[in-house]
């Protein structure tokens, strides 16, 4: 006897019923908190009652569940209505702590506080258990975070893109009356707000050589490949269901481990590729007083824009396969000059990979990057940037110079 196979519509209805919004009554909040403590953290009551760090983690995870509900529905609404999206690219986001902001934006501060107090937990005391996200430094990063909060609150269809730094920039301590800078390992206790997306990975190439294939088109034979892995953080709006996304990229090796080198006793060389790849997203703004520091900064910036543009185009093609209509569905805003290579990289994708004629590709670019093109090509770039582009990123250098020439000729 053949087993019963439900039709797709029945499965979709059942799925929709089972993923209904979590109730916000006191007992439901308590139940979800206890479930997160038991099933995600493997904590019993006796273990967690005197451990504020674990209490914070259980609370953050239970709040994140409610953010994910709104985040999924927001994305489904955008996709269904085929709205034009704005993508905000920034190398830093000074987000601060997320728990109090998330609970407040969900309008559940009093409900959570009352529910947890009846479990013997004071929610307000857990705010200080959260570690500041090491994703930004100063005014530029704070501006970027405020933009995302505002976009979510005002119900705009928007995404943010950045890098997931392992050590942030630094933490300051005073030793013998002097300020000392130490690595800020903000991920020591994990980040309960992020969702690791192992299903979303993109290759990013470095070095190699360029093969001229005639006309405007060239082929880049890359000498080194690094993998960009996505991490998503929901950004809730205030007093709205609109919850947008901040996608951060982590650099991972395309080849994790060289077993042959390891068997030959060369243990450090066996993991050299892994270490070199992960260095790209280790620290925000690596010191560029040295040649290697300048190279790392450029690799960081190119890694960021390459992974981001691949992701934007993949999402666009899911709803519209015609790249000639790209400017009707996509708008890109860059925060400062750090993502400026996105202009040349997008021309590289459109011309060299997609086969679009240079003039048409440039018109598309002007459709969703008009202000940016004027701003970045009138603002002088450091000579070191051109030197490194010419040495290590031949195809991007070619397109960057051609873009500047094309811009001024127009």
Written description of the protein model:
The longest helix is centred in the first third of the chain and has 30 residues, at 52-81. Mean pLDDT is 85; it is low at 373-388. The chain has 18 helices and ten strands. Helix 2 (26-40) packs across helix 6 and helix 14 (341-353) crosses helix 18. The strands form three sheets. A six-stranded mixed beta sheet has the order 5-8-9-2-1-10. Strands 3-4 form a two-stranded antiparallel sheet. The protein is an alpha/beta fold and 410 residues long. The protein is globular, with a radius of gyration of 24 Å. The termini are far apart. It has two domains: 23-81 and 103-130, no CATH class; 195-409, 3-Layer(aba) Sandwich (Rossmann fold), CATH 3.40.50. A hairpin with a 2-residue loop joins strand 3 and strand 4 (178-182). 33% of the residues are buried. The chain has helices spanning 8-18, 26-40, 45-48, 52-81, 99-105, 109-117, 123-126, 139-153, 259-263, 267-270, 272-278, 291-319, 326-329, 341-353, 358-368, 370-378, 383-392, 394-409; strands at 85-89, 158-163, 171-175, 178-182, 195-206, 209-212, 218-221, 224-236, 243-253, 330-334.
